[in-house]
Amino acid sequence: MAARQPGTLTPAGQRLLDTASTLFYRHGIRAVGVDAIAEAAGTTKKTLYDRFGSKDALVALYLGRRFERWRAFVAAYLDEHAPDPGPGRVLAVYDALAEWQRDAERGCAFVNAFAEIGGTEHPGVAVIRAEKETIRALYVRLVAEAGVPEAAATEVGLRLALLHEGALVTMTAGGQPDALTHARAAAADLLAAALS
Questions:
Q1: Which CATH code for domain 1-53?
Q2: Cα 95–100–80 angle (5° rounding)?
Q3: Which DSSP state fits 32?
Q4: Acyltransferase: is it a keyword of this entry (predicted)?
Q5: What residue ranges of the chain have pLDDT lower than 70?
């Protein structure tokens, strides 16, 4: 059975997805079995398979829902804190990321998931790649809107995305909690140079 979309989930399906999302993020995808998810959600394994078809489909749905929440969060953050095009709007992505990561003790869910399922045919890999591409595209678009010439906007946007991703890993795996502050400062320098 194919996985249902989040909007069509029954209450039991929603509980399963919410529970799985928490457990996958806290403990890892491979460490959490369907028995543990069903038990914590107060349902059965049969209900899980009826609603999602497989654990892999549930993982992909977890990642997809997290991706959509992040995308909505950053869009709302930019609209509220930096509505006008310019360097401030570009740098506000780092501020949004800092806010998003405030209670995310394990760092980037997508990096964590890729460490477990990368290099396989797992359906979650496509979601991870889409999230990373969306981050790159967001920076490229914002950089162009800020006035960086078109010929340089793609390269500058890519470098800003690399700072973003590197800071996420450095915060957690590198044990450097102020990595985003440093990434934001480097991004400001890069933008200033590109706009001069």
A1: 1.10.10.60
A2: 55
A3: -
A4: no
A5: 1-7
